[in-house]
Amino acid sequence: MGDANLSVEESNFEGKSVLVLTGDIDAKTAPVLKEALEKRIAAGQTVFILNFSGVSYISSAGIGVLNAALTLVKGKGGDIVLAGVSPVVRDTMEVMYFTKKIRLYKSVPDAAKSL
Amino acid sequence: MIPQKETRLRVQSNLDALTPLRSTISAFIGNQLSDIEKNRVILAVDEAVSNIIIHGYKGSPEGEIELIMQETPEQFKFILCDAAEPYNPLTVPDPDLDAYHEEGRDGGLGVNIYRRILKVVYEKAEEGGNRLIMIREKGDDK
Predict the structure, then answer these.
(1) For the whole model, what pTM was predicted?
(2) What CATH number does residue A71 fall under?
(3) Residue pair A81/A104 in contact by the 8 Å Cβ criterion
(4) Is B27 an 8 Å CB contact of chain A?
């Protein structure tokens, strides 16, 4: 298990914005992800690659944030895709049927190619 | 059946308690379940505790939650005791998950998740508050 924090760092892959998430996404830390996404959406960004390779846990609070943000950006013609999701985190998303809605890729380059 | 192992953890109703709580559950289960199955159990208890903190105690850090973890040869049992207003999560109707995702909702899945992962029994505690008993049969591991 990671610690109680979630960090969100912005990087770039071939001109595409990538948010690198590190930590656990639970009821405590989900607001950190929500703020990071909402701030960028308010500034006009509608396409996101989220690098999940540093995320070891996600609860329904985190999936709720992703679900709301994904619906919002899709309404603006954008998308959110995830890269490097661990088997355990992927399973949680499957339990919540979220993998029916969001696209998961093995790596950031694969995710970038899809956009 | 008398548990072969029992661990008790008492935490304040603060979301900071979630990480140590997950670590304690993980250590209690050890390597007896696969990583995915263990994570599901941890997720279920985490969702229940989060709901107690956010909805039961309405975010007040003054409340207490006790987690009693018991193991028998057949099962793991997680008992959550709180002193919040009586609330039976088994009365909550299942959400329409397709509508949930289609409409972009951002909350309200916790009860549904833990009820699908674990067998759940609710008891209104005689001394006030709630007891949520969550059971994972070991034979259910894939």
Answers:
(1) 0.94
(2) 3.30.750.24
(3) yes
(4) no
